[in-house]
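hiii, so i know i said id send this last week but things got crazy w the move. better late than never?? heres the sequnce for the chain we talked about at the cafe, plus the structure i predicted for it. fair warning i was half asleep when i ran it
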Amino acid sequence: MHTLHDDEAESHYLGQFIPLHYHHNMLMDKNRMDNFKAAIDYAVFEGAKVLELGGGTGVLSFLSAQKADKVWCVEFNPVLVAESRRLLAINNNGHKVEVIHADAFEYLPPEPVDVVICEMIHVGMLREKQVEVIEAFKERYRKRFGDKLPIFIPTAIIMAVQPLQQDYDFSGYHAPIIQFQRVFAEHPTATELAPPQTYSILDFTQTTSREIAWEGMFKMEKSSSVNALRFFTKNVLTMNQQDASTIDWVIDYLVLPLSQPISVQAGDELHVSFSYITGGSIRSLENNIRATLNIDAKK
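okay and structure toks below
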């Protein structure tokens, strides 16, 4: 019997297979919506041509259509194609959006565009195919329309990692599990043991590799037990070139348990390394984390 690899197994319920109610919930995420609206308001100019890859409910295409002359909204899931057409039909300027039932890995607009929106984003750029879709698009686009690329929303991704002592007690049941933590909320069950460190910056205006590998050292600020790593992902949606300001969207944190807790004292150095492929499973990252005390630093 063929056994599915982690990444194969996840492909059965990712991307085009995400249930409709999940997309409805994204409409209610004020953090997401406010920042995308601000970025689109800034980047999309009057008369622009816009392409959205992976349109979902069509909301980002709708926001673009308030200024753009034409928006192509590409979506592979037929349920979402129907839903986006239904919703766009009852919204202002929805007629400017053409919903295309096609694969984002293959579609090209009939003419050059000014802005490309691609929101297939997950913490650490895992699970969904954001990087792969954008790189494939750039290659196809250059072949047909030349080297000048459109503006991308998001334009860059900044990722960081931090060691934690995470409480895994659930009504007396000890369960070291993968967790998501709401951004900007208080997390009393998580004790931060060192400041976060940036481990990768993806710039979509440049060629972007799917391979991510990092190793670094954290100096412990507290005596405790390191039993988890928290991963941060900040999406730089757009940049004001004049003053270098950005419109950002920080998504929920991902907390991964270590295979074995490590007792540390304040001042100890913790060596951490990991590698993974963007679009891969969460387990593929979790299984590649290595964390050890720097023994030499203790001498």
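btw The chain has eight helices and 17 strands. thought thatd interest u
miss u guys!!
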